[in-house]
Amino acid sequence: MRLTVYTLLIAASLGWAWNVSSASKETPLQQSAANKAAAINKEAGIKFIEQDWDKALKAAKDEKKLVFLDIYATWCGPCKMLKQYTFTDSAVGDFFNKNFINVSVDGEKGVGPQLAQQYAIKGYPSLIVADETGKAVLYTAGYIPADVLMQFAQEALKRGGKSTN
Question: N or C, which terminus of the chain has less Cβ within 10 Å?
Fold first, then answer.
Protein backbone atom coordinates (compact mmCIF):
# COMPACT_ATOMS: atom_id res chain seq x y z
CA MET A 1 0.00 0.00 0.00
CA ARG A 2 2.79 2.46 0.92
CA LEU A 3 4.66 1.64 -2.27
CA THR A 4 1.54 2.42 -4.34
CA VAL A 5 1.01 5.79 -2.58
CA TYR A 6 4.67 6.75 -3.05
CA THR A 7 4.55 5.68 -6.69
CA LEU A 8 1.44 7.79 -7.27
CA LEU A 9 3.00 10.82 -5.56
CA ILE A 10 6.17 10.54 -7.62
CA ALA A 11 4.20 10.09 -10.84
CA ALA A 12 2.01 13.11 -10.02
CA SER A 13 5.10 15.22 -9.21
CA LEU A 14 6.79 14.27 -12.46
CA GLY A 15 3.64 15.02 -14.42
CA TRP A 16 3.32 18.44 -12.77
CA ALA A 17 7.00 19.21 -13.42
CA TRP A 18 6.61 18.15 -17.06
CA ASN A 19 3.60 20.46 -17.51
CA VAL A 20 5.36 23.42 -15.90
CA SER A 21 8.55 23.05 -17.94
CA SER A 22 6.77 22.43 -21.25
CA ALA A 23 4.31 25.29 -20.68
CA SER A 24 7.12 27.82 -20.18
CA LYS A 25 8.98 26.91 -23.38
CA GLU A 26 8.31 29.10 -26.38
CA THR A 27 8.37 27.84 -29.91
CA PRO A 28 10.88 29.43 -32.31
CA LEU A 29 7.97 31.26 -33.94
CA GLN A 30 6.90 32.74 -30.58
CA GLN A 31 10.51 33.72 -29.79
CA SER A 32 10.84 35.39 -33.19
CA ALA A 33 7.63 37.38 -32.64
CA ALA A 34 8.84 38.48 -29.20
CA ASN A 35 12.21 39.55 -30.64
CA LYS A 36 10.51 41.53 -33.43
CA ALA A 37 8.24 43.26 -30.91
CA ALA A 38 11.26 44.21 -28.80
CA ALA A 39 13.04 45.57 -31.89
CA ILE A 40 10.00 47.62 -32.89
CA ASN A 41 9.74 48.96 -29.34
CA LYS A 42 13.42 50.01 -29.42
CA GLU A 43 12.87 51.82 -32.72
CA ALA A 44 9.89 53.63 -31.23
CA GLY A 45 11.76 55.10 -28.27
CA ILE A 46 13.91 58.15 -27.70
CA LYS A 47 16.72 58.53 -30.23
CA PHE A 48 19.87 59.59 -28.38
CA ILE A 49 23.12 61.16 -29.50
CA GLU A 50 25.65 59.03 -27.61
CA GLN A 51 28.50 60.59 -25.63
CA ASP A 52 28.70 63.82 -27.72
CA TRP A 53 27.64 66.83 -25.67
CA ASP A 54 29.05 69.38 -28.12
CA LYS A 55 27.12 67.84 -31.02
CA ALA A 56 23.92 67.98 -28.94
CA LEU A 57 24.44 71.65 -28.05
CA LYS A 58 25.12 72.56 -31.69
CA ALA A 59 21.99 70.68 -32.83
CA ALA A 60 19.94 72.42 -30.13
CA LYS A 61 21.15 75.81 -31.34
CA ASP A 62 20.52 74.95 -35.01
CA GLU A 63 17.06 73.48 -34.37
CA LYS A 64 16.07 75.93 -31.60
CA LYS A 65 15.32 73.13 -29.13
CA LEU A 66 16.20 72.28 -25.57
CA VAL A 67 18.61 69.45 -24.80
CA PHE A 68 17.47 66.40 -22.83
CA LEU A 69 20.54 64.92 -21.12
CA ASP A 70 20.57 61.44 -19.59
CA ILE A 71 23.66 60.95 -17.42
CA TYR A 72 23.97 57.31 -16.43
CA ALA A 73 26.43 54.71 -15.16
CA THR A 74 26.81 51.27 -16.72
CA TRP A 75 26.48 49.55 -13.32
CA CYS A 76 23.32 51.48 -12.32
CA GLY A 77 20.12 49.41 -12.01
CA PRO A 78 17.67 52.33 -12.25
CA CYS A 79 19.56 53.57 -15.33
CA LYS A 80 19.03 50.21 -17.02
CA MET A 81 15.33 50.31 -16.09
CA LEU A 82 14.97 53.78 -17.66
CA LYS A 83 16.58 52.55 -20.87
CA GLN A 84 14.51 49.36 -20.96
CA TYR A 85 11.08 50.65 -19.94
CA THR A 86 10.75 54.44 -20.00
CA PHE A 87 12.94 55.49 -22.94
CA THR A 88 11.47 52.78 -25.20
CA ASP A 89 7.87 53.91 -24.69
CA SER A 90 6.53 54.97 -28.10
CA ALA A 91 4.65 58.05 -26.84
CA VAL A 92 7.73 59.20 -24.90
CA GLY A 93 9.92 58.61 -27.96
CA ASP A 94 7.61 60.54 -30.27
CA PHE A 95 7.38 63.48 -27.89
CA PHE A 96 11.07 63.71 -27.02
CA ASN A 97 12.27 63.20 -30.59
CA LYS A 98 10.03 66.07 -31.77
CA ASN A 99 10.71 68.51 -28.93
CA PHE A 100 14.27 67.91 -27.69
CA ILE A 101 17.78 67.11 -28.78
CA ASN A 102 18.40 63.94 -26.77
CA VAL A 103 21.86 63.00 -25.57
CA SER A 104 22.96 60.11 -23.38
CA VAL A 105 26.30 60.25 -21.56
CA ASP A 106 28.10 57.75 -19.35
CA GLY A 107 28.89 59.82 -16.25
CA GLU A 108 32.15 57.97 -15.71
CA LYS A 109 33.68 58.15 -19.21
CA GLY A 110 34.60 60.73 -21.81
CA VAL A 111 32.76 64.02 -21.27
CA GLY A 112 30.63 62.41 -18.53
CA PRO A 113 32.74 63.32 -15.47
CA GLN A 114 32.93 66.95 -16.64
CA LEU A 115 29.15 67.13 -17.06
CA ALA A 116 28.59 65.35 -13.74
CA GLN A 117 30.72 68.02 -12.06
CA GLN A 118 29.15 70.89 -14.03
CA TYR A 119 25.64 69.84 -13.00
CA ALA A 120 26.66 68.69 -9.48
CA ILE A 121 25.36 65.17 -10.08
CA LYS A 122 24.82 63.32 -6.82
CA GLY A 123 23.56 60.03 -8.27
CA TYR A 124 22.53 58.11 -11.35
CA PRO A 125 20.50 58.34 -13.43
CA SER A 126 20.33 62.12 -13.61
CA LEU A 127 18.03 63.68 -16.17
CA ILE A 128 18.66 67.29 -17.12
CA VAL A 129 16.99 69.58 -19.58
CA ALA A 130 19.30 72.40 -20.66
CA ASP A 131 19.15 75.23 -23.16
CA GLU A 132 21.46 75.48 -26.18
CA THR A 133 24.20 77.05 -24.04
CA GLY A 134 24.10 74.20 -21.54
CA LYS A 135 22.32 76.16 -18.80
CA ALA A 136 20.09 73.81 -16.79
CA VAL A 137 16.36 74.39 -17.11
CA LEU A 138 15.11 71.43 -15.06
CA TYR A 139 16.66 68.45 -13.27
CA THR A 140 15.52 65.17 -11.77
CA ALA A 141 17.25 61.98 -10.64
CA GLY A 142 16.38 58.32 -10.30
CA TYR A 143 14.08 55.99 -12.17
CA ILE A 144 10.80 57.51 -13.34
CA PRO A 145 8.04 55.86 -15.40
CA ALA A 146 6.93 57.16 -18.79
CA ASP A 147 4.01 59.27 -17.50
CA VAL A 148 6.21 61.09 -14.98
CA LEU A 149 8.90 61.68 -17.61
CA MET A 150 6.25 63.24 -19.86
CA GLN A 151 5.20 65.60 -17.04
CA PHE A 152 8.88 66.46 -16.48
CA ALA A 153 9.26 67.24 -20.20
CA GLN A 154 6.15 69.45 -20.30
CA GLU A 155 7.42 71.43 -17.30
CA ALA A 156 10.88 71.78 -18.87
CA LEU A 157 9.42 73.12 -22.11
CA LYS A 158 7.31 75.60 -20.16
CA ARG A 159 10.29 76.80 -18.10
CA GLY A 160 12.49 76.92 -21.18
CA GLY A 161 9.99 79.06 -23.07
CA LYS A 162 9.41 76.47 -25.77
CA SER A 163 6.10 75.25 -27.16
CA THR A 164 5.44 71.61 -28.00
CA ASN A 165 5.73 70.48 -31.59
Answer: N
